[in-house]
Structures
1.
Amino acid sequence: MGIPVKLTSLTSKGGCGCKISPDALSAVLKNARRPGQHDPRLLVGLETSDDAGVYQLTDDIALVQTLDFFTPIVDDPYWFGQIAAANALSDVFAMGGTPITALNIVGFPISKLDPAILGEILRGAADKVEEAGAVLVGGHSIDDPEPKFGLSVTGTVHPQKILTNAGAKPGDVLILTKPIGVGIQTTAIKRDKLSPEKTEIVMNLMATLNKQAAACMLAYPVNACTDVTGFGLLGHALEMAEGSQVGVRIHAAHVPVLEGTRQLAEQGIVPGGSKSNYRWVADRVTYPAALEEVDRIILCDAVTSGGLLISVPAHQADGLLSSLHEHGVHWARQIGEVVDDHPGKIVVV
């Protein structure tokens, strides 16, 4: 609708809306865990930093619950709503679940910005929730100097069919369903360094649901899954390695990266979250000497609404990849393997 406002300029110091740094979050969560208050119906909780919580209701039904919100990463409010919704819904798909309901989470400077902008954000999110097959049931808003938006999403999954980030097995192949570089490219948007054509490409990518990728995945005996978001490809792969007590090998040359990402990173257009990720994984990732630092940082780039990282037995990988490509998940690539060696760590080759 072309509302004349640059939403990305309304965040403090051009903030990226990134997650709290992994180190800081780990320290906080130590105080949040209550091992003495374990409920046997809580099937997935805080222990392995998974994408969502899972709580069993009956022998056949468990709830998948997640929440995600952030400040604007694009200027078009309708696109921002779509992207924020797709990002939140992705956690349910990554757990093997089906989203059923969603609640809006809104912070908005209602006295400073045209309310029509908020209307467009909500319209974008509502369209994406409907596309996911879920129902928008309400939400909560506050008057906030910085715009913020996201969703709390509830889904369902069979208790015996939950996918977590802690089930990867040696001999598995790792498949990634979307390219990385999103954090660098959205930082370029904020700095007016990305062309309209490339901006549209990255917005489309972020707004694309992982619904189809998940549907393909569920037809195969997948051992583990996570979605790649704020902690970057290596950060989320590391959580999988640690949770599964396995090693991970990533082939840098096989990882799909958005065109132009390296050139932007070489110009210093890198979000703070990506740099934090790079520092966080440093002592548990081994890189080849020939891999330049800029390429290492790209592997840690903070992603919004990224793809699924799927751990599947090697003999099933070709079939899953073919299915993904046939169903429109064209970016899907085999990017690595799960190994017995170096448990809890990653080797990039």
Note: The domain at 7-157 is CATH 3.30.1330.10 (60s Ribosomal Protein L30; Chain: A;).
2.
Amino acid sequence: MDLGIRGKKGLVCAASKGLGRACAEALAEAGVDLVVNARGAEALEATAQEIAARHGVAVTPVAADITTGEGRAAVLEALGGQADILVNNAGGPPPGTWTDWSREDFIKAIDANMLTAIALMQALVPGMMERGWGRVVNITSQSVRSPIAVLGLSNTARAGLTGFVAGMSRQVAPHGVVVNNLLPGIHATDRAVSLDSGVAKAEGIGLDEARRRREATIPTRSYGRPEDFGAACAFLCSQQARFMVGQNILLDGGALNVSV
């Protein structure tokens, strides 16, 4: 399927690896020129070169902490102040217990997983509205639909972003701008390794056993593949997604049994 976005310009955050890189790859395959961001300069530069060589598009790396004003300013400068596509993504805060989290822990989580995405939308969506076309995909988590106790910091921040998008997406839709959230379950990324390592340590089992136990809870009996997630993101950025507005789309292998 031709997604109809060849020649568009996009920003993908946290794009050096994992789900962010998968989204960048899929958009580049569809012909989108990209600015990609992550904190690690070496890995990001390598990712940008590989994607550009593979797909024949322009890929500009900007190594910066997107959760800071300085980082966002650097990314916006590389974009020339405008983009057609925005993929918001940031690593989730660490797991823990509700009694252990301080106010500072919550502020850090909200800043990274809620306020940063909002700031980028506020910076880029007005231009999309003026031009009459735009796509925003916020990568959140399945925990938005079914909160996970040990991920309380993530639950809190991502639920706030979900509430913001529920209103904002309907306000910008008349101007040709489509905003949706993509909710990953467990995928085969470093994040999964981190979570499984925590379980392995807590329960005194091996990492492989921790993964097997988690996979057994997923109807597909496997973790998601990053490339499938990237393809879903690219579709949400396509011309064909124009009628999908303000949705929270699960990609979790059926792990959550929800009817609405």
Note: The first helix runs from residue 18 to 29.
3.
Amino acid sequence: MKTKEKRKTGFQEFWKRRKKNAAYSNLRFRILIQTSAIVLLTFLIIFTIYRRFWFGRVGDWIVQFLQDVFRLGREDALNIYQYGLRENSSLIIFGAVAACFLLLFWFCLSWFIRYFDEIDAGLDQLVQGDNRQIVLSPEMAPMEQKLNVLRQTLEKRELEARLAEERKNNLVMYLAHDIRTPLTSVIGYLSLLEEAPDMPAEQKAKYVHITLEKANRLEQLINEFFEITRYNIQEIVLEKEKIDLYYMLMQMIEEFYPLLEEKGNQAALHSDENVMVYGDSVKLARVFHNILKNAIAYSYRDTTIDIFVEEAPPDKISIRFQNRGKTIPKEKLAAIFDKFYRMDEARSSNTGGAGLGLAIAKEIVARHGGRIFAESEKEQVVFWVELPGKLGEQERQQ
């Protein structure tokens, strides 16, 4: 089995290399033509000089040059020309060919180097954040495509980072504003209790209860601040093990029983009792906790939240959280997994958190090699979590 997989991988790598090499076939052909032209032109120049001048005018010119410069007799000059130059003509011709070739090649390098200049200019454009289309020579079309894909990716990441930072700043500002309200109430009611020690017991109990509610809300807001800080510094590291998925979800439903009871909701698990998954139990519990918490927060009262667990052959496990609630618009549905995004636009609502729960859930599921997404229509909201099944088990065994 492993041998087949290795062969398949090797075959895929071979075709990737073939495809990559074919991408620059135009450039290789251009270089081949250019080099062939240089070689041909070199030999043509040397052959022309050799045929027309070596035995005629050039020979007479060399003899005359030796006579005039070194004041030699014609016979001595002819002997030097004959024995010094003519008998070593092959070496001289070879040197002339090499020199001519290098000279022509030098001029042709300026043509080839312009490709590097174009790539360098394109990289400078990326570094400077220039959003214009990068244009290279036709022979460099594959490189042009990759640089433009990189440009678009950087633009997208920059936009996402800017929007996330903007959402975070707005969230921090709103949270800071929201903290003042319960804090003011806590101080106000405690001051009343201190100033009126003989206050009737019934009224005192009422003020204590209100103060406790405001203090709990204050704690929730402070925890949201810590959640933002942890998200910025944390690195999700998985410690995988074999997990009884049915038991984990049943235990989570029991933990949420008081919150479900408060709204008159119920949670029903539809799953085989022997469903196992390979992953980080703590991290996956956080994923399901965040989804179930959102489902309860945005469900209609006195409705049932259904949790379906299905094994999809050959290697996938699907967990579906389905509840009745207000239909989520498509534009919001695409953004609910973004950092610092809150479904709850009313800042005073107690249901909205720091907008990190689903973003962290998405990252955890992605680290497990799965995916998470949501659907909503006709007052029904469905969250899907897909995790590797048998493939995860194979990973564990390896």
Note: The mean pLDDT is 77.
